[in-house]
């Protein structure tokens, strides 16, 4: 089955055998053996127009991972020191916006834990760019799998691929996140044909939006009409992914894409599956449902993944998403000891209850070998334990009643077994506090330890001119408190900007923002020497205690030398920089999120001095009589001549 791969898409996950890195071809790729923290690059997986994916060894957890680097080749290039810089100043804004989109995509994916979604272990910014680390899977894309087939796949196989993908899309749609790039080359099939949805491509889309290169972000045939232009009545939403996923099924069945949506608006040449040569091979409801999902007008399609499921004949949904906490087994209730009533006639023994059998739950296509499953199995086992306990208690009660059947006068009082005192619970040994030898390692460690349920985003300029005040906006997904730090790498001083001496308010509402500077608050200005600011925004669920940090008052802000801070980091860990959460108990869980951005200080442009040229002196005006007025004497002479001429004319 022929289908060209999008030349601008980034290969996120590799095949079984990675491509060998060739420096002559991949000039922008990092060399084999390069190290980024605990990750060592051991091979090159793929390179696209907007990113590079490496096979890396995680020396901390001793596993191989896929490491993706933000690298838009048309905007930036690699320096000799492995850093990434823009090719031209006119590309700086576009590069910066794409970088933030790349980080936001990593942050979004890190929130979810579903077998059909790429899992992001961690992400960070360094070398003028950003990185994200993901599992390294062996498999092939759906596009390659279809190309290897001789005929169209069976309906059961298509449904097996569809179900986990729809589950994953339903999860991200709940957070108003849409994939918008579903195609056969963005669905990978792992062992057992388990699908994984790849490449959200946020950075690619935003860069293409800014450069107006629609052909880069839209795959004709898979993109619905609303992706060509966002306008009133054509908004994007869950129905956008519904169209693209249905187009993938269309391709799986007919070995060709649907006609491009923009052409269908002029003249619809779409061939319904129900009228195709494949009618009869697949169920009518399945084909009719896919046809409905491929309606050009968004309002004529199913408006959600749940509606799509119903349209194509999925009667039940799969188990609860894996990122939800599984239900705990219900503990069996205590069985009361039977009381002996001497005057009561013995009752016939009840029939023993049938034994509860916990039926095995078949593994679905959404199961992940390395991730916790969320299914109904704990509930089934818990219910089985309860039923078995009740049945066992009833049987024991009947046996005891049958054995103790002498006359009522000889019935002895039940024996009471003294309670055995339970041993005291073992004292939990506190986990060792992670320590860091450098500030960079501490920031990376905090990024890795952040709670994925909290989301913090920074909107900062890429550059700031010396003499200008810092301006930025922090966003938070949850109700939280903002702690803003700035590392001036030119002076090696770290400042805590928020909360400050003048403005102690640092609260952010859920889905709200916090802008710097604030009214009546202190401003932080850029000063020489030139260099880079590294801004770290932390949002914390609880207020934080900084009493054991080495920060000292410096005007309106707190600051510390890097050497002093790193000495504390080596002994006290992250608490030296970010403090500790305050709570009523002796200790509590630390729920926080972190976002990091770099700002380059630039020299102020030299003032343009215009040459001083003495202005010419105005010429002395000559006093000239107004042409409309005559001097009084001249007027009298004129009147005399006029009267004389009139007298001559009249013959006087």
TrEMBL record:
Extract the InterPro entries matched here.
DUF4384, Kinase-like_dom_sf, NEK_Ser/Thr_kinase, Prot_kinase_dom, Protein_kinase_ATP_BS, Tyr_kinase_AS, Tyr_kinase_cat_dom
Record carries keyword Lyase: no
Please report the stretch or stretches of sequence annotated as the Protein kinase domain.
39-314
Against Pfam families, the record matches this protein to:
DUF4384, Pkinase
Where does this protein have compositionally biased stretches of type Low complexity?
354-363, 620-629
GO MF terms held by the record = kinase activity
Name the segments for region: Disordered.
320-370, 607-652
Q: What is its EC number?
A: 2.7.11.1
The residues that the entry says bind ATP are: 68
By sequence similarity, the record places it as follows: Belongs to the protein kinase superfamily. NEK Ser/Thr protein kinase family. NIMA subfamily.
Tell me the protein's name: non-specific serine/threonine protein kinase
């Amino acid at each position: 089955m022929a289908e060209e791969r999008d030349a601008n898409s980034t290969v996120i996950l590799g095949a079984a055998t990675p491509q060998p890195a060739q420096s002559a071809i991949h000039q922008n790729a990092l060399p084999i053996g390069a190290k980024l923290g605990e990750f060592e690059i051991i091979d090159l997986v793929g390179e696209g127009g907007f990113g590079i994916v490496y096979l890396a060894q995680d020396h901390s957890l001793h596993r191989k991972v896929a490491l993706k680097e933000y690298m838009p080749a048309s905007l930036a290039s690699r320096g000799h020191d492995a850093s990434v810089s823009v090719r031209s100043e006119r590309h700086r804004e576009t590069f910066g916006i794409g970088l933030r989109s790349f980080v936001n995509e990593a942050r979004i994916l890190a929130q979810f834990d579903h077998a059909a979604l790429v899992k992001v272990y961690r992400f960070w910014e360094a070398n003028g760019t950003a990185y994200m680390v993901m599992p390294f899977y062996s498999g092939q894309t759906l596009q390659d799998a279809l190309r290897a087939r001789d005929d169209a796949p069976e309906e059961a196989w298509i449904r097996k691929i569809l179900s986990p993908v729809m589950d994953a899309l339903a999860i991200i749609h709940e957070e108003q996140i849409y994939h918008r790039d579903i195609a056969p080359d963005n669905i990978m099939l792992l062992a057992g044909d388990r699908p994984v949805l790849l490449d959200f491509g946020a950075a690619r889309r935003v860069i293409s939006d800014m450069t107006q290169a629609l052909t880069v972000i839209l795959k004709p045939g898979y993109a619905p009409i609303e992706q060509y232009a966002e306008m009133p009545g054509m908004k994007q939403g869950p129905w956008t992914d519904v169209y693209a996923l249905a187009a993938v099924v269309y391709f799986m069945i007919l070995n060709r894409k649907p006609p491009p949506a923009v052409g269908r608006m002029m003249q619809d040449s779409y061939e319904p599956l129900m009228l195709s040569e494949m009618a009869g091979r697949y169920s009518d409801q399945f084909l009719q449902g896919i046809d409905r999902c491929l309606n050009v007008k968004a309002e004529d399609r199913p408006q959600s993944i749940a509606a799509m499921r119903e349209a194509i004949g999925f009667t039940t949904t799969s188990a609860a998403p894996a990122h939800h906490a599984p239900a705990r087994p219900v503990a069996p209730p205590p069985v009361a000891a039977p009381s002996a009533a001497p005057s009561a006639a013995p009752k016939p023994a009840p029939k023993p209850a049938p034994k509860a059998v916990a039926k095995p739950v078949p593994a679905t296509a959404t199961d992940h070998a390395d991730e916790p499953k969320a299914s109904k199995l704990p509930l089934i086992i818990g219910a089985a334990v309860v039923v078995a306990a009740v049945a066992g208690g009833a049987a024991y009660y009947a046996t005891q009643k049958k054995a103790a059947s002498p006359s009522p006068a000889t019935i002895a009082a039940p024996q009471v077994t003294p309670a055995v005192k339970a041993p005291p619970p073992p004292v939990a040994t506190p986990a060792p506090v992670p320590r860091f030898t450098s500030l960079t390692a501490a920031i990376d460690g905090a990024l890795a330890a952040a709670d994925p349920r909290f989301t913090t985003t920074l909107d900062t300029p890429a550059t700031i001119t010396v003499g200008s005040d810092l301006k930025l906006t922090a966003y938070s997904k949850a109700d939280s408190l903002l702690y803003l730090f700035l590392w001036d790498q030119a002076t090696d001083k770290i400042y805590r900007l928020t909360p400050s001496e003048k403005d102690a308010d640092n609260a952010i509402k859920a889905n709200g923002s916090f802008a710097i500077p604030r009214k009546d608050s202190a401003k932080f200005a850029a000063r020489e020497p030139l260099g880079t600011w590294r801004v770290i925004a932390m949002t914390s669920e609880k207020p934080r205690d900084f009493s054991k940090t080495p920060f000292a008052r410096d005007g309106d802000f707190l600051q510390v030398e890097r050497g002093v801070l790193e000495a504390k980091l080596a002994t006290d860990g992250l608490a030296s920089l970010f403090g500790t959460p305050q709570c009523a108990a002796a200790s509590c869980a630390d729920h926080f999120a972190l976002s990091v951005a770099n700002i380059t200080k630039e020299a102020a442009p030299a003032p343009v001095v215009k040459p001083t040229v003495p202005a010419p002196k105005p010429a002395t005006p000559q006093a000239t009589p107004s042409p409309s007025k005559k001097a009084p004497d001249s007027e009298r002479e004129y009147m005399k001549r006029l009267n004389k001429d009139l007298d001559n004319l009249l013959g006087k």
